[in-house]
Specification:
single chain; alpha+beta; three-stranded antiparallel sheet; 5 helices; 8 strands; 36% helix; 18% strand
């Protein structure tokens, strides 16, 4: 399935230093390595799998360094964190509005465009509606889509 274009994160034509600077982050080799990895293609990857992939590329980072930098990149909006099968934390380079459809059997994840309600993305619609009804300030509505991939 084709993935949506990235809106503010890493893309193949952007230097990792520019991505970090644009998000108010200082440059570090681990951050640049992670941003570079995610810029190659839209990925849904765990910290552990990212750690293995970076080490295979000669980026010898500890797992704790990968976790620490993923948290910083997530908080800055460079990557999105979500829960995959079994509630495993996964990271996504596509930060545009979309949902993840997760196969409860295989764990495969595909991006699903965010549907709109009254011309706004579903998440924005939910946030506005719930805030108006309750007076609460909603941080971010999270919708989990789980199912089973069709058999071929």
């Amino acid at each position: 399935m084709a993935h949506e274009p990235h809106t503010h994160g890493a893309t193949p034509d952007r230097d990792p230093r520019d991505v970090l600077r644009d998000h108010g982050l200082r440059y570090s080799r681990p951050r640049a390595a992670i941003v570079s990895y995610f810029s190659e293609m839209d990925r849904h990857v765990s910290a552990e799998d990212l750690h293995v992939a970076l080490n295979e590329r000669g980026e010898h980072l500890s797992l704790s360094t990968v976790y620490l930098n993923l948290a910083v990149l997530r908080d800055a909006g460079v990557v999105r964190e979500f829960h995959g099968r079994g509630e495993q934390k996964l990271y996504d380079s596509n930060v545009s509005p979309h949902f993840h459809l997760i196969c409860s059997e295989s764990g495969e994840v595909i991006d699903v465009p965010a549907p709109t309600v009254d011309g706004v993305p579903l998440g924005t619609f939910l946030k506005r509606t719930i805030e108006a009804a309750t007076g609460w300030e909603l941080e971010e509505p999270r919708v989990h889509l789980r199912g089973r991939k069709p058999t071929d």
